[in-house]
Specification:
Alpha-Beta Plaits; six-stranded antiparallel sheet; 14 strands; disordered N terminus; 3 domains; alpha+beta; single chain
């Protein structure tokens, strides 16, 4: 019971679709693509008593319907924590500062990953031809440019300094390798970079992959960790056998690059969702915090949350209406564009209804309050917007169905490629090609990484919602 009391602020309760059912709603952080929503739906859906789970990537909320006799809300919330997601109160809007702190954290993680990737690439780059040199230069320039773009919002000077430092470090390592100054330490250096990234910078991915895998869920985190550990295993084999020509450093570099790509997708997802969420918040922040009411013949200013039905609210010229009500005195033109979408101000006189959030014109109005709190027009619109954003459009249901079989399919093909390159050469020449087998499997895992598909459709919808909000469209 104490656990429930302590965690109660992390969810809200709603009536179920049947009398003996309940629903809880909670806000979920660390969602990045449709595979994340699928992971949560599978993990919660397998718990006893849970009947329906709807997770919205665009709204970052989960709506869970369950049998209260068989399922405990605290356990449902704890399951979400166990699989690596953060939980918060769905009724509390996150502040701008909190969202910016998350962006800074993800940006730093991505910059660290790019630095390790650049260093690894400098140690394995092959420049035997003009085209090879051009490709290496293009990759280095692209990654360095990304670092500058990510850090530029904070400080252009810091962004330039970090990008220049990464470029200098890359050139130094590239020059040392070209001059054969590193000798046999190159594989060990790339191994160190890979270990730092996989077990340090990207450790959160391991936690999420482990929690998903032990529940029998194959998602993008599992696929990524299989690819990363395959790269580490391939490199470890090379260090052990010490065979000339074996691409030991390249295996470690693959593990580094795979993790960097996933961290980039996390940062990209977060920045798109954050910017769109802030646009929607600006639109929904229409209702004033204070209201001027007439009580006992005196005009006083009180918090809008303390206004009661039947109170008389005085609205002066140019003010935003804090409440819904009926005009009992005065006449004015009301601008309702941001609330109802009407392009022109609407004349309001005695007996006409007005809605909170709209802007008074040049007249003074005395309004009798008819609706407050969750029953007000603006709050009902906000609630409908939240419900609409929480629903998945048909295209996302299609993406989810594809991704449920996509990851297992990629894993099967990767295993098939591994077995093929081990068995066929062994049958033909008597020697299995271990390096080619591992590289073939890694190629399938890297090229088949599903986050690009899982992130594109939902984030397009999120960005569209943000653009609509910027234009005053609910």
């Amino acid at each position: 019971m104490a656990a429930i009391t302590a965690m109660e602020r992390f969810w809200t309760e709603e009536p179920g679709s049947r009398p003996n059912r309940r629903k809880i709603r909670t806000r979920i952080g660390e969602l990045h693509c449709s595979l994340c929503t699928g992971t949560i739906e599978q993990a919660l859906g397998r718990l006893p008593g849970v009947e329906k789970v709807a997770v919205s990537l665009t709204h970052e909320q989960a709506l869970i319907e369950f049998d209260p006799d068989r399922a405990d809300p605290a356990r449902l919330i704890q399951t979400l924590r166990d699989i690596g997601y953060t939980i918060s109160d769905p009724t509390r809007l996150r502040s701008f500062e909190e969202e910016e702190r998350d962006l800074v954290r993800e940006a730093r993680r991505f910059v660290a990953a790019v630095g390790l990737s650049l260093a690894s690439l400098a140690l394995i780059a092959r420049t035997g031809s003009v085209w090879g040199l051009a490709l290496v230069a293009l990759v280095f320039a692209t990654l360095t440019g990304l670092v500058f773009i990510v850090l530029r919002p904070g400080s252009r000077v810091i962004a330039s300094a970090v990008a220049t430092g990464f470029a200098a470090l890359t050139l130094i390592l590239f020059g040392l390798r070209a001059a054969s100054a590193l000798g046999g330490t190159t594989p060990w250096i790339t191994a160190l970079f890979a270990i730092i990234l996989v077990f340090g910078v990207a450790r959160h991915i391991q936690v999420m992959a482990f929690q998903a895998f032990r529940r029998g869920i194959l998602n993008q985190h599992v696929l990524l960790e299989i690819g990363a550990f395959a790269g580490l295993a391939g490199g470890a084999i090379g260090l052990t056998i010490d065979q000339p020509g074996y691409p030991t450093a390249s295996f470690f570099a693959v593990a580094t690059m795979v993790c960097t790509y996933h961290i980039f997708s996390e940062w990209l997802s977060l920045i798109v969702k954050t910017r769109s969420s802030q646009a929607v918040k600006r639109l929904l922040d229409l209702q004033p915090e204070l209201a001027r009411v007439v009580r006992d013949g005196a005009e006083i200013e009180i918090p809008a949350s303390e206004v009661r039905i039947g109170d008389l609210a005085r609205i002066r010229p140019g003010e935003r209406l804090p409440v819904d009500g009926t005009v009992i005195d005065g006449r004015s033109a009301i601008d309702q564009a941001l609330v109802t979408g009407e392009p022109l101000p609407v004349e309001k006189a005695v007996g006409d209804a007005v809605v909170g959030g709209s802007i008074n014109g040049t007249g003074t109005l005395l309004v009798r309050v008819t609706a407050i709190g969750e029953d007000s027009f603006l709050r009902r619109v906000i609630r409908q917007v939240e419900d609409a954003r929480a629903l998945k459009p048909g295209v996302l249901h299609l993406v989810d169905r594809i991704l449920r079989v996509y990851t297992p399919t990629v894993l099967v093909i990767a295993i098939g490629a591994l077995i093929l390159w081990l068995v066929v050469p062994a049958l033909v020449s008597g020697h299995p090609l271990v390096d080619r087998a591992v590289f073939a499997a890694l190629t399938v895992l890297v090229m088949g990484y599903p986050c690009a598909m899982g992130i594109s459709a939902p984030l397009s919808i999120v960005r569209g919602a943000g653009e609509a909000a910027d234009r005053g469209i609910l």
